[in-house]
Structures are given as structure tokens and as C-alpha cells.
Amino acid sequence: MSRKQYFFIILILGSLATVSPFSIDMYLPGFPRIAADLKTTIDKVQLSLTSYLIGICLGQVIYGPLLDRFGRKKPLYAGLILYVIASFGCAMTSSVDALITMRFFQAMGGCVGLVASQALVSDLFAADKRAEVFSLITLVIAVSPMIAPTVGGYVTASIAWQWIFIILAGIVSLILAAIYFFLPTGRDADNSVSLRPKAVLNGYATVITQPQFLIYTLAGGLATAAPFAYIAGSSDVFMNIYKVSEQQYGWIFAFLAVAMIGSTQLNHVLLKKYTSEQIIKVTLVYQSIVGFVLILGVYNNWFGLFSLIGMMFVFLTGQGLTGPNASALSLAPFKKHTGSASALMGSWRMGAGAIISAIVSLLHNNTAMPMVGMMAFCSIGGLVILHAGNAVVRHQGSRGEVEEEISVLL
């Protein structure tokens, strides 16, 4: 693979994985304007974010077997076309309930990019290169929060929030063209993969019973749900509590994205000296400590606008280390069921994100506590799952060795 081809593949895979994050981040500055235009409240508009995350969660489970059965490109085309249609539907809504519904279908289409991009990494790159490739893709993803809210803020202020969804439809149309002309096909269609419900469930059962997949998917998925707490609560915290403008909120969001970009590049360097297992353990401890400090600070009113942004920056530096390493470790054991494994991993991540964002909305109390509390919960919970899961595996391994020795003696 030439350097130029490598660059284009990473760019396309990163763009595919960015469809959903971009779709989330770009309309956040428009929440107050959307609420006013649709004659509703911000917490009701926040449910359109929750419905989007639910759509991603369900959609990925559907796409996993389809990607294994029909190859990578056909499901990609179908999903992204659905996304484009639903985006125009979002632009034409006249009620918040219709927006919530159309966002669900938009997610059902766009989430194919998350599953396919991860499966294609396993198809196109050797196992020892995947964590590095996931870091580069995460770098592309991390750029979206720098661009999307800023663009969304200016579009909302200068034109109308409906144009955000029209722009998203145009972006995905360009990605579709890039996939057709430049993206390798990856693994071919496999006619042996059955789409019958029982066979699909058996395939997922095979994936779930793999200990390494289960541990790193559960721990990494909960830990990587922390940004969804931030996304769900940040527009209310910064725009309503700290009274920043739509454009200022976009720049704050962009600044905080630098934290994830920097740590993604750091991960690329750390992988030359440390394993993914070592990196993720240290990162979760680090984020858990920072999350606890955030809770104390908000409870005791220690933070002004800039100090809160600073602490959020420190916390989010961990995300560029957790996500790529958890992904690589989760998918490492698989060859045949890569699509299904990618779907389950992504579904759990987005499902956790949907739950966390809904909780932030439900706990809304005109303070930053729901946001920072759930961020800390995600990191601490991920750390607990990781250590508990590894402890169980070690215990089972030790018990298995003892039983083997006893059987030999007998």
C-alpha cells in the first residue's frame, strides 16, 4: 500500500466514522433557537440527541451481520442514502416530536459508517497496526468538534438552524462519492453468513462469550460515553448558565476538542513503548481522579467559566487514549465475525451514550452537576469494570490450571 493510498483510506474511514459525531456536534449551538422556533424547551430538544443515540445503538446491531453477509460497500451505500433522506426530513420538521423521529432515522442510516470503518480497519491492516490506525481515525473524528459546533453556531446565527441538516446531507453525499471511487472493498461478501434470526443471534453469542471482547467493550464503552454527558449538558451549561453566545459556544467546543486531538497524537507515540492494555489502565485512573475533582469543584462553586473549561480540557485529554486502545483490544480476537463484533462494540458505546445523555437531561437542575457527575461516573465505572473483568479472567485461568494439574495427577 503506497503512502498516498494509505492517506486516502485513513481519510475516508475517518470521515465515515465522523458522520455521527458531526451530526451530533453541529446542531448543538442551535438548541435555544430550535426550542424557540418549535415552541418547546431545551430539555425536550435534548431528546432529539437521545433519539439519535438510540438509533445508532439499534442500527449498528442490524448492520453488523449485513456487512459480514454482503461485504462492506452495499450496506454502506444503503445506510448513507437513508441518512441523506432523513437529513432533509430534519430540515423540514415543524414540531419537536417530528425532529426527534427524523433524528432517529438519520442515525439509523449514518451509523453504518461507524461499524463499517472499524470492520474495514480489521480487513485492510495487520493486527499490530490497528491501534495506530484507530488513533489516526480518532484524530480525524476529534477534528469534527473543532469544526462542527463553530460552523453550526454561525449557520444558526446568520441563516437558520434548518440549513445545518442540509449541509450534513451535502457532506455525506461527498463521502458516498469518495467511497465509490477510492475506498477498497475490504472483505468480500460471505454467503455462508446467514441472516436468519437464530444464526445472527448465535453469531453475536460467539462474540459476546469472548472474554477479551466483553471486558474491553464494556469498560471502554462506558468510559467513552463520558463525552456524551459533556455534549448533552454543555450547551445548557455554557449558554444558559455562563451566558456565552452561539458563536462563543462553538469556539469553546472547538478548544475542548484540542484535548482529544492532542491525546490521540500522544497515543501514537505511547504505543511505541507501551501496550494498549497498559495505556488504558493508567488513563482510566487519571480520568477518574479528574472527574472526582470536577464534582467537588462544581458542588463547592470553585469554578468560573474559564476554570471549568480548563478542568474539562484536562478530563477530555483521556478520551483520545481510551477509545482507540479499547477498540483495538475488543476486535483483536476476531477474524470471521469482525462485522458483528464491531456492531456490538459500537452499539454498546452509543447505547451507553444514549442512556448517559438522557440521564443528564432528566437531572437538569440549572447547574453543571448533572454533566460533570455523569462524566465522572463513566470513567470510574469503566475502571471498575476493567479491573473486575480482568480479575475474573485471572481467577478462571488459575482455576483451570489447577484443575488441569489435578487431572494429570489422577
From TrEMBL:
Any GO MF annotation of the entry: sodium:proton antiporter activity
TM annotation in the entry: 45-64, 76-94, 100-121, 133-155, 161-183, 213-231, 251-270, 282-299, 369-389
Gene Ontology annotations for the cellular component aspect, listed alphabetically: plasma membrane
Gene3D superfamilies (alphabetical): Multidrug resistance protein D (1.20.1720.10)
Keywords, alphabetical: Cell membrane, Membrane, Transmembrane, Transmembrane helix, Transport
Pfam families: MFS_1 (PF07690)
GO biological process terms on file: xenobiotic detoxification by transmembrane export across the plasma membrane
Similarity remark: Belongs to the major facilitator superfamily. Bcr/CmlA family.
NCBIfam families: efflux_Bcr_CflA
Record protein name field: Multidrug effflux MFS transporter
Organism: Dyadobacter pollutisoli
